[in-house]
Fold:
Amino acid sequence: MEAVAHSNLTGIAVVALAALVCGIIMERLRQPALVGYILAGVLLGPSGFAMVENRAQIDVLAELGVLMLLFIVGMELSLRSFRRLWRLAVVTTIAQISASVVVMLIMSIVFDLKTELAILLGFVVAVSSTAVAIKILEDIGALRTRAGRVTVGVLIAQDLAVVPMMLGISAMGGDGFDWYALPKIVLSIAFLAGLIIFLSTGKKLRLPILELAAGNTELRPLTALAFCFGLAALSGLLGLSAAYGAFVAGLVIGNSAERHPMLVVTQPIHSILMMVFFLSIGLLVEFDYMWANLELVLTLFLLVAVFKTILNVSLIRAMRQPWHQAILAGLLISQVGEFSFLLSVVGVEAGVMTRDESRLVIAVTVLSLSLSPLWVFTARRLQMLTADGVTGAGELLRLVYGPEAEMVAITFDGALSESQRSKRRLALWLRKHRLRYDRKKSSKKPPDA
Structure:
């Protein structure tokens, strides 16, 4: 028994150390730490050194991490800031989701996918990574700029859209769409919208249970967790997603008088559970599956990397935002993220997708998040060009990778010139030896009689 406990502790130590080291490396490279956690999961999982085989306990912690993610997102939402940009954010988000679903429905014909699965994948493609986008905005100092506010506004709208998307996915499970669940979905969305409108007025809520624990530093984190998991459990009992209750709990506390102290005490717990959550994503990565389904994985990945970027920039520009702001904001919300994985989990539980099909979402999510260094580099370059007064779309696109393109061109020209010189040298060498051969041949001919 003691040996088993010792082995478990050793495994936990290895996991924690790997996550810490990979997280520190990413932070040193000025990248989001969550990319390091995914990398640690890949290294420790079946695609790496296979040091973590029993994932049951990690799965439980990852589910708690999902609830804490929605809880913290709810607490951190600035509804008053969102109210100023709500029209732009809502229209952009609805257009993103609609376009993504339409494209995935077209892809379902090509790859012979179920309609329900195509709709779910459309939701997955539409949702962006809040954690990565906020990290990049903070790193380039653009969080308080107009482009930063537009980005955050769209991210908030996407976070709010996740809740009805989860409810819709749950209703699609089984033999077909559960029309009896439609009133429940409509009421839950109406309640959430009414709560947001009420809370966005700026009036602070007073919650007796939070006020009782406010003076005790030991009870404060426990109170926050009890409130989060209590509403999540109640939401589950009512037939809704547990994540819905956790999100509502975060909204309520985030607009109460105890918001700041509760946010401070829950942040460390959130950080640890988020590490476990992203680590579990890395553990699920299977390179064998990616290789066996390379065509589908790369098609969906390119859809995210290229189509989604173009779509986002076009939509934000269509909402009368300047080109430089539209390009920066559209770039930052172009990758898929943590909520995409959450939607796939809900899809598996509802029977909309199989566990084998969920590996497609995991593969695309990991590939998309692995591009974070490129997004960070591009965002920094865009910010520098904008600060220098470059705001035109054509000029920005020409200059953002200008030095790299010039280096490639010089290298290519140099290689081309060297290739031409080599060809000329070879031609001269062949000509020289041909002439020598002709002379020898003519010298061997007998003289004419």
